[in-house]
Structures are given as structure tokens and as C-alpha cells.
Amino acid sequence: MQLKPVLRSHWLAPAMLALALAQSAAAATVNSSVTPLGGDSWQMNFTVLADGTPASLSGFTVFFPETDFSNLLVLGSPATWDSIVLQPDVAIPAAGVFDSVMLDRSVGLTAGQSQGSFAVSFDYLGAGTPGSLHYEITDENFQLLSSGQTAVVPEPATWAQLFGGLGLLALLARRRADGSRS
Asked: 3-state class of 49 per DSSP?
């Protein structure tokens, strides 16, 4: 049995809404985007988003698995934050770390605030494109408040390709529908 095109489109919007709500249901989050620098070298940019749960956040740590990453280097950090990297070590084994805290930890990010401009370069030892990474968010006393996986945000060129492809699919579907009515 084949579903009518109208019925198929009715489940798409609720599914996309559920996906968006699931992403926003997390407490504070860390988003990332990756850019190839050439060869095995990549750059990852981070943005921390506060939703008020916890009430205030003033530090976060992103972990780079030692089997997939090497040569971590801080490329950018906001002036009001102190950021460092610790190199991954397969001999111990220990993940690499990008750690960043506000210089004045008594004034954290509150609900609705975000902070970007965090950038790390690295060599990626895995196949394909680096994906999401584990992160932890801490308060002014370095207590763990939440953790999760970074949400990988596509680069603008990826969005353009996605919407271009969706536009072509819509055009083809419309042509088919017009052709079947003749």
C-alpha cells in the first residue's frame, strides 16, 4: 500500500518539531562546528548556550578521545574566559581536554545567554569528519552541573546544499503531481 503524498507530508513537520524540542530539552549545551584546514588538520569552534538550568554556568570542558585526536591548540577564546588544552595521551590512556572558565566565575552565563569565539585546532586521526564530543559544564566551584555530547552545527555551505537539495526534491515532486493529473 502506497501512502498518499499528503499523508506523508503530515508526519514530517511533527517529526522535525520533536527533534528540535529534544535538542532544546537539554540543560546548558555546547554546540560545535568543524572546518577542514588541510590534510588531517581541523578547526572546531564552540558556542556555550545557557538555558537557566543550571541558573548560572561559568566553565566547561570538552574531551577529545586519545585514539582520534592529537596536537590540540587553542586558536581563540573570549577575553573574559581563560582557556587551555591538555594533549591526548595514548600511553596512559587519557583523553585530550579543552577547558575554559570565566575569569570572574561569580558572574556566569544565565538563561538565554550564549558565548562563542572558542576555537581549537587539532589533527584528526579517525576517518571522515570529526563528530560530536563529550562535554561537561561546571559552576563557579567546579562542581559538575551537566554533561552531554556537543551538537554539531553544519557550516553555512552545508545548509545551502541541504536547502538546494530539498528545493530540487520539491520541484520534482510537484512535476510528478502535475504530470499525474494530466
From this structure: strand
